[in-house]
Design a protein that fits this description.
It holds the Pfam family BPD_transp_1_N. InterPro entries: BPD_transp_1_N, MetI-like, MetI-like_sf. This is ABC transporter permease. The structure is a single chain. With about 325 residues, the chain is mostly helical. The chain folds into 2 domains: about 90 residues, no CATH class; about 230 residues, Orthogonal Bundle (MetI-like fold), CATH 1.10.3720.10. The chain has 13 helices and 2 strands. Strands 1-2 form a two-stranded antiparallel sheet. Strand 1 and strand 2 form a beta hairpin. The longest helix is centred in the C-terminal third of the chain and has 39 residues. The chain is flat, with a radius of gyration of 25 Å. The N and C termini lie close together (about 10 Å). The relative contact order is 0.14.
């Protein structure tokens, strides 16, 4: 138990150090960005000299760099991401109003890509060097090569404009609250396709590698059927690398939703970030990037924890550490 706690403690500290490092880079980039910092706070609105002086004093822009950096870190760790001019809302309130829409898009895409990738990868490995394997592998390579924004535009053109099966933009009919599932279909498929293709390739390779291990020969020598060897011994061992891949994939899906939300007009954090960049709203851009960065770091930490629990080699190392202690 002590070895496991030390292991996860080191992971937690390294994640925290990484988060502070990213915040430092973001702060320095914001400081080095060209333009008037006061104007970036208020957007395109005109600013009088008196109001400019008030803003400089209120946001501490006249303080030394190191002091502003410490205030920035303190604000982030207390959940204070600043104020978004032009919207009469804080950055945290704006993000909270959109984060649910982003999760409604990213989580189904993640589940679809993971379940589909596992099933198709295992099926391709089971039918290795046959026509079905060639079809699955070839399709996966082709889909992985297609940029997701281009795939989204293609799906919009075919299924929305030509066939009229799905709406083109938004998350529900005009004036109606909530999410209509018809609005989810195309963006979820677009967001999941690249990850589905990637996971299919990884799962296929992992299963084939597992089938070449000595313990598989031992299982076969015991007279077990091909199906039993595959499902009881090869696939469980092939799932270990998929845990790491799936964790990174969830982070990539969250970050990748920025482009997809723009293509489909989906009102999530990605579209919020795009609009903030267009309006030079640096405070809002910084807030969204901080939340996305924190989400990815937390997901990677949880992935490492799950991998440690699933990998028998790590569990054996923890047990050996306990016996030594």
């Amino acid at each position: 138990m002590k070895a496991a706690l030390l292991h996860y403690g080191r992971l937690l500290i390294s994640s925290l150090v990484l988060f502070v490092a990213v915040l430092t880079v973001l702060f320095l980039l914001l400081e080095l960005a060209p333009g008037d910092p006061v104007q970036s706070l208020v957007g395109d609105n005109p600013v009088s000299e008196e109001f400019r002086s008030e803003l400089i004093a209120a946001f501490g822009l006249d303080r030394p760099l190191w002091e502003r950096y410490l205030i920035f870190l303190g604000n982030v760790f207390t959940g204070n991401l600043g104020y978004s001019f032009g919207t009469s809302m804080t950055v945290a309130e704006l993000i909270m109003s959109r984060i649910g829409n982003t999760l409604a898009l990213a989580l189904p895409a993640f589940i679809l890509s993971t379940v589909g990738g596992l099933a198709l990868g295992a099926l391709a490995a089971r039918t290795r060097s046959r026509a079905l394997d060639g079809a699955i592998s070839g399709t996966a390579v082709a889909l992985f090569s297609i940029p997701n924004f281009w795939l989204g535009l293609l799906l919009l053109m075919v299924f929305s404009l030509w066939l009229g099966w799905f709406p083109t933009q938004g998350k529900s009919p005009y004036g109606q609250e909530g999410i209509d599932i018809q609005y989810l279909v195309l963006p979820v498929i677009t967001l999941a396709t690249t990850e589905l293709a990637y996971k299919t390739r990884i799962m296929r390779s992992s299963v084939i590698e597992a089938l070449g291990q000595d313990f598989i020969d031992t299982a076969r020598s015991k007279g077990l059927s091909k199906q039993r060897v595959l499902w009881r011994h090869a696939i469980p061992n092939a799932l270990l690398p998929m845990i790491t891949i799936s964790g990174y994939s969830l982070g990539f899906t969250l970050a990748g939703s920025v482009v997809i939300e723009r293509v489909f007009g989906w009102p999530g954090m990605g579209l919020l970030l795009y609009d903030a960049v267009q309006r030079n709203n640096n405070q809002l851009v910084l807030g969204v990037v901080v939340v996305l960065t924190l989400s990815i770091i937390v997901i990677n930490f949880l992935t490492d924890v799950v991998y440690g629990l699933a990998d028998p080699r790590l569990r054996a190392r923890f047990t050996a550490g306990r016996r030594t202690a």
